[in-house]
Amino acid sequence: MIRTENLIKAFGDTTVLKGITTEFYPGKTNLIIGRSGAGKTVLLKLLVGLHKPTDGCVWYGDTDFFSLDKKAVRAIRMEVGMLFQASALFDSMTVEENVRFPLDMFTNMTAKEKLMQVNSCLERVSLEGANKKYPSETSGGMQKRVGIARAIVLDPKYLFCDEPNSGLDPKTSIVIDELIKDITVEKNITTVINTHDMNSVMEVGDNIILLYKGEITWRGSKEDVLESDNEYLQDFIFASPFLQRLRARALGK
Amino acid sequence: MIINRFLAHVGRYFQLLGTAIARPEKASMYYRETMRQMNDIGVGSLVIVVLIAVFIGAVTAIQFAYQLQDSFVPRYYIGYIVRDTTIIELAPTITCLVLAGKVGSNLAAEIGGMRQKEHIDAMEIMGVNTAAYLIMPKIIGALIMIPMLVAIAAFVSILGGYLATVPVGLISHSEYELGVRSYFIPYNITLMFIKSFVFAFILTSVPCYQGYYVKGGSIELGRASTNAVVFSDILILLFDYLIAVVFT
Ligand SMILES: Nc1ncnc2c1ncn2[C@@H]1O[C@H](COP(=O)(O)OP(=O)(O)OP(=O)(O)O)[C@@H](O)[C@H]1O
Ligand SMILES: [Mg+2]
Questions:
Q1: Is A31 a residue whose pLDDT tops 90?
Q2: Distance between Cα A39 and ligand 2 center (Å)
């Protein structure tokens, strides 16, 4: 479990996060949702220590993440997989080399074992056969999936996904969501997903927090979304008039 | 204000080097990366180093011959002067100034690009000590290859001096040979290697630092690359002076 305690982050004069206190549970897909610019990426990067908080704590189980020395931080990060918003694939390496990189760096597997592991991860994200392609030769959606494959190749205990389905068509998007969901349940991973995709919210939202202007304005699960009359939530999920009508009909109004 | 900023840079530079000196997560990965760097730095710079060395030797020889005109200094001194000036000063310094431009800008751009494209963040998240993985192989590769390049440069310069003077009749083959063999002090070779090690360290560590902490976009990346070269050059000249003072 990951817990944040009054997490505050300011860049110069602008305070992006104003005291985030929440919990992310293992075996669940924990969602951070919010409009563009709400601070989702900043929060995610705080959780993994790519930003330093202005104030507040992040707890991994009983460990205060920001009190650790570099070595201990690296030990935790060995158990972390992360998918970046812009994928962050190593562009001078092929897809296979990208996914294999963590194995090369941290395991003593033989070349054959590594290849099998890489291929099974690529298969999970439906990219079998793309081994020899370079990231620049693949589509944005494929890069996302390579990023996921790379994030799960070491069987992480914590998985962070920044917009896993932006730039994907709705169908692929759902496949990716379910994939992440399956892995999460199967391996009891603590998964945190940033998204502004309402399909994902309704599909995999076990534990959702809604960020608005640096604060959590709503929390709950996908079941609570329809019932809630939180203005910002409704504004976010049912952004278009079409969806608003659907909601009204579902609620029998 | 400027002093503060300067000291902050110095502090962060040494901090980065401190983090970079660590036990590799995986020796084979570091080995592979070091080999790649040795190839890039060493083999990749051979042609330009040789080219420059030929001209350094040739120009030194011709200009010294010109200064010797109508003097009582024996002409075989040309060989002697070319040998010593290139070994002590020109081969290490000029070669490394040029390499700071070629290798230094390249390293700053490579690491800076990785920083901007979040590759470094991605590696950090995996648990890689990026300071070590990205910097140590480059420094080690340079420390191995650059002294070799400098030695080659010194040798080629002496050849260059020969080519510029003997075939055109400024001096005879045996005179040049006599000069090159006269008054040889082995310590000068040591001096050359001390310089090349120090310069090699400067021209890799400074650009790595510039690249590692780059922010912003392509303009900042270009600026980091330029700064890498300028600061390396200044430091090389400064240490050239200090080594001269301390070791001679
Ligand atoms: N390094 C930084 N320096 C200064 N301000 C930043 C920095 N990173 C983010 N911000 C600011 O923080 C705010 C939140 O940014 P963030 O990237 O977290 O948004 P987001 O919720 O992920 O949006 P999106 O859905 O578009 O990715 C923005 O207003 C942005 O300007
Ligand atoms: Mg974002």
A1: yes
A2: 7
